[in-house]
Amino acid sequence: MSVNHYENFPVASALCPPRLRPAVKAIYWYARTADDLADEGPQNAAQRLADLAAYRGELLATCNGLAPGARWRAVFEPLQHAQREFGLPVELLEDLLSAFEQDVVKHRYLSREELLDYCRRSANPVGRLLLHLCDVHDETSQAQSDAICTALQLINFWQDLSIDTARDRLYIPLDACREHQVPVGALMAQQETPGTRGLVRALVQWARELMLSGAPLTRRLPGRMGWELRLVVQGGLRILEKIERLDYDTLHQRPVLSARDAPTLLWRAWRHTPAASPATTPSPVSAPVSDSAPAPAASDDHPT
């Protein structure tokens, strides 16, 4: 399974410890359903926001011990069980909702900082919730988790550029478009300009740097969850490789993982060696998630 906003982030796989699988699935269906309320079907923006407000009300009610209502009982009964067993932080679940609400009304991002704030609520809560299930709460682990989750979200954006622009959504920061002299109108019309591929190249490098800065977390998580996260990291890096092999033309093509990638991902997860980054010049969008985020991984996170 995968959460739509970060499709390269598998959850509840065979590697997930059995004791945690019901809780992980509950978090998945909670996010999946909210995402559908924001994106799927013929509803207008006002109706989507009303549905998400009702969904938020159901979250708060069930977290306060009330029985789930009929409309979303299949979502909130297992989530309520998970919340009772593990004490899931309600604010993280609410952060996800705020991102879905934002998707209804905001389709452009002025700067990297605006986009990172969105990722803080759309992606990072998933990683922090999984850390909570593993009883991992230290600041270093949380910062590295945030870096991985933000990288996965960004990778999904660069992977889905052809899909998002067709839906009148653009997650590339407008200041990056100006830096690379790429007109927004051309992107939205899916018309390539001289700077388009250089822009995507810089965005790919930004996502890779973030992913590598969080990669040491895979050695800190215990047992199966550490292996799960290794595959998550490798899956994201593999998508970046595929974007590079398309010569950064995701405005017209969407790279995906397939069964043929499995041996490579498993080998790299076992060796714990992310793919090498091609030489690129520093970009204005290449920056850590925050000043407190860890530096890129040490040499044992790079190919041998």
UniProtKB/TrEMBL annotation:
> Which intervals carry biased composition (Low complexity)?
274-298
List GO BP terms, alphabetically.
terpenoid biosynthetic process
Q: Which SUPFAM superfamilies match?
A: Terpenoid synthases
Q: Which CDD domains does this one have? A: Trans_IPPS_HH (cd00683)
Q: What Pfam families does its record include? A: SQS_PSY
Q: Which PANTHER family match?
A: BIFUNCTIONAL LYCOPENE CYCLASE/PHYTOENE SYNTHASE
Q: What is this protein called?
A: Phytoene synthase
Where is the organism placed in the taxonomic lineage, from the top? Bacteria, Pseudomonadati, Pseudomonadota, Betaproteobacteria, Burkholderiales
